[in-house]
Amino acid sequence: MQIKLTKENLHSEFVKLIERISGEELANCYQCGNCTGGCPVSYAMDFGPREIIRLLQLGQEDTVKNSNSMWLCVGCLQCYCRCPKGVSAAKILEALRQITLRKGEDHEQIKEIPFPFMKNAPQQAIVCGFRKFVS
Amino acid sequence: MKIAYYPGCTLNTVAKGFDTSARESAVLLGFELKELNQWNCCGAAFPLTPDNVIGLTAPTKVLVNARKEGDTVTTLCSVCYNVLKRTNKVVRDDKEKRGVVNSFIEEEYDGGLNVIHFLEVLRDKVGFEKVKGAVKRSLKGVKAGAYYGCMLLRPFEDIGIDKAEGPTIFEDLLKALGCETVEFPNKIECCGAHLAMGNEAVVTKLSGNVLNSAKNRGAEIIVTSCPLCQYNLENSQKKLAEGSGNLQMPILYFTQLLGLALGQDEGSLGLEKNLFDVRPMLKVRGI
Ligand code: SF4
Ligand code: SF4
Predict the structure, then answer these.
(1) B146 phi/psi in degrees, rounded to 5
(2) What is the pLDDT of residues A45-76, one digit of tens each?
(3) Are residues B149 and B61 located together in one domain of the fold?
(4) Nearest CA to CA, how far is B193 from chain A (Å)?
């Protein structure tokens, strides 16, 4: 993968927004990879939590936005609990979701959610799913 | 003893057995779970980003109503517990957010409530020794895998029910009921949670990891305190059975086992609602 470093993307507004919403400082991550090691869904992510943070440190807005990682994060907090620097990748991925959802762009379309799920799933799954996937 | 109790939406609907088995168990142990006079959904997800204050309003309303009924509130669902406990801490410790939330819901709440899980009630207020003494029908020899998942434990500094890695509160209770507990590597790993909405493949994989991890260590049943874990662990077995993995692993709420062991009337345990019925196995064992 080719990464283009420019002054603009290193100081991008997008990265500042992520830091503001998540309350995390991206520079605190020293790329040890413990988060990805403990992340149960990193196997399915385009980029694991460590890589997402690296891409953000390098201002790679489009690559991060176009990856599936934020929608696969289950918010289990293993990344945060095992990070030696106290960085919460979970908050950073949540910030990424929030940026999309706050624009009114839904990740799941309510009318496409299968009926058996809506009928049988615990209410908490429906409420939580809406909060994570729907604006 | 009377303890204010917040059931939450799921225990009021699809996980009725979790609720009724806990209430009945409490009675058998000599106390009452007193449902809050008024309550609403906790929001089912603690807002992870600190700028999301609106997500704190629903759980704070629950806390306000609970505070009217005493200084402690207990809950059974791991997610409700996580959301209420973390919200309470934010409202207590963060003056600015407290002000915003209070002005939005037009209340004056200071975070003075103590939010505890029903497991903590059993450990700290009743005592596992007393629970053990009240057992009428020992679950002797039942190999149970205690599955904590995420929300009962993390983040440790906010929840603090037990150690973040290697917790034992669940096993300690199960041992008091006579079970033989099984340590398994995935006991604090995620089941796939809300990805059940829209991403069944990942849930099947994650729950499958939990199920196989427990089974490989000899577990005959898995015990949980979260209706979403229960749903995912049951449902993914249907998917796994389409492949090669026919596990047939009963997934029970800890209160169902507690009720069983205390000699509770089976009608209020909700065992018939579980996809894989534990009763035939108990019968074979003479329990
Ligand atoms: S564990 Fe922490 S420091 Fe290590 S890569 Fe992940 S976020 Fe960075
Ligand atoms: S919170 Fe998200 S990124 Fe962190 S370990 Fe869990 S799934 Fe992975």
Answers:
(1) -85, 120
(2) 999 999 999 999 999 999 999 999 999 999 99
(3) no
(4) 6
Residue type, B60: T
Q: How far is CA B198 from the centre of its chain?
A: 24
Verify that B143 and B74 share a domain, yes or no.
no
Which secondary-structure segment (H or E) carries B80? helix B78-93
- Mutating to test ligand 1, I would choose from A19, A24, A30, A34 the residue with most ligand atoms within 8 A of its C-beta, which is A34
Instruction: Give Rg (Cα) of chain B.
Output: 19
**Chain B interface, Cβ < 8 Å to A:** 8-10, 13-15, 41, 43-45, 48-52, 55, 77, 79-80, 150, 154-156, 164, 189-190, 192-199, 202, 205-206, 209, 227-228, 230-231
How many structural domains are present in chain A? 2
Query: Among B10, B40, B197, which residue's Cα sits nearest to residue A129?
Result: B197
Q: State pLDDT tens for residues B27-81.
A: 999 999 999 999 999 999 999 999 999 999 999 999 999 999 999 999 999 999 9
Q: Residue A133 belongs to what domain range?
A: 107-135
Residue B244: helix, strand or coil by DSSP? coil
| ipTM metric | 0.95
Chain B CB contacts of A115 under 8 Å are none
Distance CA A65, CA A70 (A): 8
Q: Which domain holds residue B152?
A: 136-284
- Contacts for A111 with CB less than 8 Å, ≥ 6 apart: none
Which CATH number fits the domain that encloses residue B98?
1.20.1050.140
| B42 and B115 Cβ atoms separated by less than 8 Å | no
pTM: 0.97
- Asked if the bond preceding B155 is cis, omega within 30° of 0, the reply is yes
Residue A58 CA to residue A55 CA, distance in Å, equals 5
Decide if pLDDT at B244 tops 90.
no
Amino acid occupying residue A47:
F
What is the distance in angstroms between the Cα of B251 and the nearest Cα belonging to chain A? Answer: 15
B83 — phi, psi (to 5°)? -65, -45
